[in-house]
């Protein structure tokens, strides 16, 4: 019988405890609800996240009806949120305005997690937080159902970094995760026993993120928006003031300069690179968004670099539709951080798309379309591209 670590419950030869950071303090209490089957999965990550967070707890089960801890949390729904996607989920930006004191994280495969949520009305009555990850998952030892899916520990690292404003602090939790992934892959690659499952390498295919962009290209609309956004704490909601979009497959384009309805933030004209006179002469928000709705076709999907403007678009009344995170796909193509969209265009040697709109939005929609075209081309490739060496500020 193999000797197990009493802390991480992994075989001592695969123990990751030495890679865990000192337990991190957080303002947010994290409550893990783990599906019982996930508890028996050796490569699960909820326990790893729990061991890294001082202000956390973990409970196993499917039906938590009558569970004293959940009943207690449900008494104060304004201070609790569930990390789970859905049409009614609020954005991270909205959650940051009123951050939850307690965050419930459901751990399991996607079907298991959905079952836990559906079985427990107490969870259905709590607000949900959804987000688009800033980087692709490194969970190379487990298949995820979609390109935006990440492991439990990656999701927790992402959401706590956004809610508490210290992403580098929580990134230290991933050291143990990466160690576990690398260790597991090394063991799988050297297995020779006939009764063990072995890795079989088939023909090379482009990463899923790139293939899916290529497959959806005809229906993709590249979208970028600028906002009149006041500093955190000003209690003035952000609003869209410049919206641009293009349909690369057909060359169709859309632009709207929207007159601000709220006080203009001092930095708005500087950031959007449009004068106050130009902004105030813009059309009404209702008229602009109605035109954008007419521009979109029923099967269109939006391709974005970040989700801030996308959230403002939904809040403005535009019907929600699928959206693709081009930044995530770019990070996969670069095998590293994507950075800003203009820098990504340079790294990928993207095609020279003509600039057709004014302001910073004109610069960024041009770069975004260029990056998308490169990713689509790579998604259709029959052999791997030469790896791009990312430049740093120390290089000449």
How does this model look, in words?
The longest helix has 21 residues, at 359-379. This protein has a five-stranded parallel β-sheet with strand order 2-1-4-3-5. Strands 8-7-6-9-10 form a five-stranded mixed β-sheet, with helices on both faces. 37% of the residues lie in helices and 14% in strands. With 396 residues, the protein is of the alpha/beta class. It folds into two domains: 12-188, no CATH class; 209-379, 2-Layer Sandwich (Nucleotidyltransferase, domain 5), CATH 3.30.420.10.
What is the secondary structure topology, with strand pairs?
Elements: E1 29-34, H1 36-39, H2 46-52, E2 56-60, H3 68-74, E3 80-83, H4 92-97, E4 102-107, H5 110-119, H6 121-124, E5 128-129, H7 152-164, H8 167-171, H9 174-190, H10 208-216, E6 220-228, E7 239-247, E8 252-257, H11 268-272, H12 276-280, H13 285-295, E9 301-304, H14 308-315, E10 323-325, H15 326-334, H16 341-347, H17 359-379
Parallel strand pairs: 1-2, 1-4, 3-4, 3-5, 6-9, 9-10
Antiparallel strand pairs: 6-7, 7-8
Family: Belongs to the TDD superfamily. DTWD2 family.
InterPro entries: DTW, DTWD2/TAPT
Organism: Myxococcus fulvus
């Amino acid at each position: 019988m193999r000797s197990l670590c009493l802390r991480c419950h992994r075989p001592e030869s695969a123990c990751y405890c030495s890679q865990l950071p000192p337990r991190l303090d957080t303002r947010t209490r994290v409550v893990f609800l783990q599906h019982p089957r996930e508890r028996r999965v050796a490569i699960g990550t909820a326990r790893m996240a729990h061991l890294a967070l001082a202000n956390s707890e973990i409970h196993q089960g499917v039906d938590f009806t009558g569970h004293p801890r959940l009943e207690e949390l449900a008494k104060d729904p304004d201070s609790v949120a569930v990390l789970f996607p859905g049409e009614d989920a609020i954005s991270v930006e909205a959650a940051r305005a009123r951050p939850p004191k307690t965050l419930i994280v459901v751990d399991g495969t996607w079907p298991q997690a959905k079952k836990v949520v559906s079985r427990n009305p107490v969870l259905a009555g709590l607000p949900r937080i959804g987000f688009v990850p800033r980087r692709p998952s490194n969970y190379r030892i487990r298949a995820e159902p979609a390109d935006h899916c990440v492991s439990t520990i990656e999701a927790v690292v992402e959401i706590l970094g956004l809610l508490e404003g210290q992403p580098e602090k929580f990134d230290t939790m991933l050291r143990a995760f990466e160690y576990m992934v690398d260790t597991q892959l090394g063991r799988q690659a050297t297995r020779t026993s006939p009764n063990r499952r072995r890795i079989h390498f088939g023909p090379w295919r482009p990463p899923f993120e790139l293939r899916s962009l290529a497959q959806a290209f005809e229906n993709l609309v590249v979208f970028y928006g600028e906002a009149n956004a006041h500093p955190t704490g000003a209690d003035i909601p952000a609003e869209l003031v410049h919206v641009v979009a293009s349909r690369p497959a057909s060359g169709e384009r859309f632009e709207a300069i929207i007159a601000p309805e709220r006080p203009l933030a001092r930095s708005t004209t500087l950031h959007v690179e449009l004068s106050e006179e130009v902004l105030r002469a813009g059309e009404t928000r209702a008229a602009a968004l109605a035109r954008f709705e007419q521009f979109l076709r029923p099967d269109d999907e939006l391709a974005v670099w970040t989700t801030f403007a996308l959230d403002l678009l939904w809040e403005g009344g535009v019907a929600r539709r699928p959206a693709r995170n081009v930044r995530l796909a770019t990070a996969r193509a670069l095998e590293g951080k994507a950075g800003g969209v203009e820098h990504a265009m340079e790294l990928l040697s993207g095609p020279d798309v003509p600039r057709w709109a004014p302001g910073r939005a004109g610069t960024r929609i041009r770069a975004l379309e260029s990056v998308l075209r490169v990713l689509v081309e790579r998604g259709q490739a029959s052999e791997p591209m030469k790896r791009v060496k990312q430049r740093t500020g120390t290089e000449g």
